[in-house]
Amino acid sequence: MKRLKDINWNHLYCFYEVAKAQSLKSAAVVIGVASSTISEQLKKLEQSLGLKLFIRSSKGLFLTKDGERLFEHAREMFEAGSKLLDNVSQSDVGGYPVTVGIEETISFDVATEFVSQYWDVFTPFGTVNTSRQMEHDTLVENLLSGQLDWGISLKNSSRKNIEAEKIGSFQLTFLCASELYSKFIDPKDIIRNIPLAQSSWDTGLNKAIENYLKKQEIYPKETIASDHFSYVKKLCARGRCIIYVAENPLDDYEGLRKFQVAEPLQIELFALWKKTNENMLSIKKLRELIKSKLSHVPSRYTDLDLQIEVSEVSDELLR
After folding, report:
1. Between 35-49 and 24-31, two packed helices, what is the crossing angle to 10 degrees?
2. 223-226 and 196-199 as β-strands: parallel, antiparallel, unpaired?
3. Nearest 5°: CA angle at 277, between 9 and 144?
4. Strand bridging mode 150-153 / 98-103
5. Helix/strand/coil for 242
6. What whole-number distance in Å separates Cα of residue 128 and Cα of residue 96?
7. Among the residues of 123-186, which ranges form H helices?
8. Nearest 5 degrees, angle CA 282-CA 288-CA 292?
């Protein structure tokens, strides 16, 4: 076998489904043929490649090293094929994992909660992965290059080939040591005189806070930068600095005092995706979630049986 035309793609697809399910029987159900047909096609594939792809034992099928290597390539190819079909078909195809890029920001809790809900609406069709994106421009470039299916950012996009919709917002609140707070008459003077801790990487959010404080005529005497929230939180608890966090009523910042200096700073979050992917199931489900999220979370959000059902776990394995 020297050229692509020499490959029997049906044999390779059978291998992919068997390797994914680790079962001849399960793959036969997916493909819609008899298990004996699948077994015969696997033997022909092994003969044509000159490789042993499976170890067959009483406990089932296991990939050999060559089988693992082939499966990685086949998986990428057939998942890309499912995306291609999903993009041009009028039917809901699915059958591929989704990767969501989340811009590195203080609002991680809000963003990941949204993606957690997205898992429930997309999981019948594939899994959902996340990828940390250091800044907005990097996120957009990865969307355009196809490395991400969609993403979450603090900014809308001005690019014509990127679509965006608001998915939520959060408030920022300042924190300082409770004892430190009690020593000042005006909270604004805490920020003016005690070092303000900022993120080293979240430049967009830092700029938003800087502009917010300028409107209140508040100019911090000193700022510090850190990549590690736990570090500045420890400093804050000992009265060495001030920090800011996304408002979360469920968080318990023991020993720290929340405070505002004016109307809270409201930060919006946007979902972004490539415009040419509008017809894909991954984006259709995203838009469904955006529309429904204002009124309710997915109907089976707390149902532990959902994943068992979509994973098609046999009743024989359950108590």
Report:
1. 100
2. parallel
3. 95
4. parallel
5. strand
6. 9
7. 136-144, 178-182
8. 145
The angle formed by the CA atoms of residues 87, 89 and 94, to the nearest 5 degrees, is 65
Could you tell me the two tokens for 273? Answer: 């995706």
Task: Tell me the torsion sign for CA atoms 49, 50, 51, 56.
Answer: positive
Give the Cα separation of 73 and 68 in Å (integer). 9
Q: How far, in Å, CA of 1 to CA of 200, rounded?
A: 53
- The domain defined by 169-267 folds into D-Maltodextrin-Binding Protein; domain 2 (3.40.190)
Q: Specify the residue for token string 């004892």.
A: 179
* Domain boundaries of the chain, sorted by first residue: 4-91, 98-167+269-301, 169-267
For residue range 153-181, list pLDDT tens digits in order: 988 998 999 999 999 888 899 999 999 99
Whether 169-267 and 98-167+269-301 are alike in CATH topology: the answer is yes
6: DSSP letter: G
Q: How far is CA 307 from CA 60, 122, 310, 313, in A?
A: 24, 11, 5, 9
Q: Supply the CATH classification number for the domain 4-91.
A: 1.10.10.10
DSSP 197-261: EEESS-HHHHHHHHHHHHHTT---S-EEEES-HHHHHHHHHTTS-BEEEE--TT---TTEEEE-S
Strand partners, 244: 174
Q: Whose CA is closest to 243, among 111, 219, 102, 231? A: 231
Question: pLDDT tens for residues 71-99?
Answer: 999 999 998 888 888 888 777 777 899 99
Q: What's the CATH code, domain 98-167+269-301?
A: 3.40.190.10
Residue 2 above 90 pLDDT?
no
pLDDT band, residue 296 (cuts 50/70/90): low
